[in-house]
Amino acid sequence: MLDLDWLLRWHRSPAAWRDERNRRWKLMTTARFFALLLLLFSTQGCLGPNAFSVNDYRPQTTGVGQVYYQCLQGAQQPHAGGGFAAGGGTAYGSMSSGVVTNSTLLCACMGSEGYTLRGMTGGELFADIAFLPLEIPFALLGATGPVSCP
Question: What pLDDT is stored for residue 113 in this prediction?
């Protein structure tokens, strides 16, 4: 089948071309706005100091990386878990193992070495307040944000 839509558009007046161009521009602008809004909403939980980031500890001295690595090694604990379920004549089993980091131990170790987690900047605090209505549903669903020291 031959598509003659381009031919119909060719005979439009310049005003019709301008109207279609403006309509497409508004559509793209709206799409970009919602894409940016989605990006901001999806990254809002990443704001603030994080106990698992060496760059968030103060004072930033030359030895902070070495101390952090030693504390991180000490705070890691082996973890193993398994499960078994049976029903309908079928049985399922699963096992998993790995290492988990105890954030309380990490913070205590860094604190004993004289390092503290930095405070929130003004921009992070503003974004946290601005996105508070969005943080509540994520908190109820169990999504976690940055880990902070007690």
Answer: 93
Q: What is the spatial distance between Cα 24 and Cα 18, in angstroms, rounded to a whole number? A: 10
- Cα(57)–Cα(110) distance, rounded to whole angstroms? 8
- Domain residue ranges in the chain: 47-141
pTM above 0.70, yes or no: no
Q: CB-based burial of residue 97 (10 Å sphere; 0-12 exposed, 13-18 middle, 19+ buried)? A: exposed
CA distance 2 to 24: 25
The full DSSP string for 42-88 is HHGGG-S--TT-GGGEES--TTHHHHHHHHHHHHEEEEEEEEEEEET
Q: Which two tokens stand for residue 16?
A: 């019709």
52/117 Cα distance (integer angstroms) = 10
- Please report the pLDDT score of residue 145 as a whole number: 60
